[in-house]
Each structure stands twice: as C-alpha cells, then as structure tokens.
C-alpha cells in the first residue's frame, strides 16, 4: 500500500493477537483491508483467519453467518499473501517515478521460488474436496482450436459446499520470457457431502498467445503446454497434463 512501509499489522495489533491467542485456543482473527496483509508473526498461534476485505454495510451479517456456520465460505484469495516484505517488489512510497518489473503476485513467487504465507487462489471451507482424473479431449490443436479440460471433483467432508476450480497453463521451451504458469480459467461447483461431479473448462489456442512488441501482433507458439488444475496456484495442489500446438 502506498501509505505504509510494511504490510505487517501495527506492532500493538500483533501484540494484542498474540496475547489473546495465548489464553484462548479458539482465537479467530478477522482482517479488514484492501490488499494482502503479512500474518506470518502470528498466523500459527490462532485457530483461523478470515479476510473480510471491505465488506460494506452487510459485512457484519455475512461475518456472523460464517463464524456460526450458517453458511459455508467458498471464497478464494485474489492476491498472494507474502510471508514477508522481502518477497515483494521494491516499493518507494514518495518517489515521483519508478520502473517495475514484469513479474508480480503468484508469477513472481513462481519465478523466484518463494513460498508465500497463502498462495493466490487459496481459500478454506467447512468441508473438503478432492481432485481426480484430470483429462483433455485432445493432445494437440491448431491455431484456431479448442481443448476441453475435464476434472472430477468430490466433496469428501460432511457439509455441502462450493469449490472454485482453477486452471493454469505453463509453457515448454518458449522463445520469450513467460511466467511459469498463467491463470486461464476457473469455475465454481456446488457439491453435497459424498457427491462427485465432473467439471469441464474450455481452453482456446488464442488464450495462449503473447504480444510481440516488435511485430506488433499476438503470437501463438508452436510448443508444448502444461495444464495445471487445482484449488489454488500452489504447485503441490495442482494436477497436470500436457498438449501441443501444431
């Protein structure tokens, strides 16, 4: 944020959290803010963390319904929560001119090999889900083609819930500097306890293009691609399969 030197909470806030957590094992921290907050100094001392963002005049109602289990949360983080400020690009709050690099967020984490506190796309629920049998309907497509990506999602817990399934794509031997993976699709699925459904996502060849600044046009590379599907951007959470553009 532009008005702060660190994304940590203020020192007194962190001391309060640690003090409460030391005498109450059921301590839940609700964060309200417009962006990532560093929680590393105390995250393992509390039972749960809820990122409330700026939830508006009905935010209190929504928070109460989540805390008391009236509804099952299904949200996912739209940003990386880093472990420390050192995992972020350099920031100068008072400069009038600065140049930033190409990589930010989960793409920077992938490039530098950083492990964040919470990855992009992360979010817990009162139930659990399993991902199985990732498959595609073809192993090769042309420049105007489309692939159907299918995955079996099961509710392995005891409460009905919604899961946001995320699809990323990586690039084998690209001729240009590209991220380890890019988010290319997502969808939400509702499952009752014990239920399994197949979710289908579409991936078009044009979704894989990059912009060539010299040619001033979008380019689709004839290379191999890796599809990643899972509940977050974290590598360990993702199933993979591959295909080619020919």
UniProtKB/TrEMBL annotation:
Family to which this protein belongs: Belongs to the glycosyl hydrolase 3 family.
Protein name, per record: Fibronectin type III-like domain-containing protein
Keyword vocabulary terms for this entry: Hydrolase
Lineage of origin: unclassified sequences, metagenomes, ecological metagenomes
A Pfam family matched in the record: Glyco_hydro_3_C
InterPro entries: Cellulose_deg_GH3 (IPR050288), Fn3-like (IPR026891), Glyco_hydro_3_C (IPR002772), Glyco_hydro_3_C_sf (IPR036881), Ig-like_fold (IPR013783)
Biological processes, Gene Ontology terms: carbohydrate metabolic process
Molecular function as annotated in GO: hydrolase activity, hydrolyzing O-glycosyl compounds
Domain Fibronectin type III-like: start-end pairs: 163-233
Biological source species: marine sediment metagenome
């Amino acid at each position: 944020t532009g008005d702060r030197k660190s994304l940590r909470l203020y020192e007194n806030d962190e001391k309060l959290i640690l003090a409460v957590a030391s005498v109450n094992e059921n301590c839940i921290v609700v964060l309200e803010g417009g962006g990532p907050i560093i929680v590393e100094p105390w995250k393992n001392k509390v039972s749960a963390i809820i990122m409330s963002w700026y939830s508006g005049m009905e935010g209190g109602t929504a928070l109460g319904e989540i805390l008391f289990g009236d509804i099952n949360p299904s949200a996912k983080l739209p940003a990386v929560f880093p472990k420390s400020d050192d995992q972020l690009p350099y920031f100068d709050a008072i400069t009038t001119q600065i140049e930033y690099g190409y990589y930010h967020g989960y793409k920077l984490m992938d490039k530098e090999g950083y492990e964040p506190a919470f990855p992009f796309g992360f979010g817990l629920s009162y139930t659990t889900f399993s991902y199985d049998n990732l498959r595609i309907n073809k192993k090769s497509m042309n420049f105007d083609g489309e692939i159907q990506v299918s995955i079996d999602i099961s509710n392995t817990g005891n409460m009905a819930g919604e899961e946001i399934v995320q699809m990323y794509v990586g690039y084998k031997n690209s001729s240009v500097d590209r991220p380890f993976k890019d988010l290319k699709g997502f969808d939400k699925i509702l499952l009752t306890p014990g239920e399994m459904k197949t979710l289908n996502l579409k991936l078009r060849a044009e979704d894989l293009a990059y912009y060539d600044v010299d040619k001033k046009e979008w380019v689709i590379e004839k290379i191999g691609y890796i599809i990643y599907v899972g509940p977050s951007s974290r590598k360990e959470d993702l199933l993979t399969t591959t295909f080619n553009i020919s």
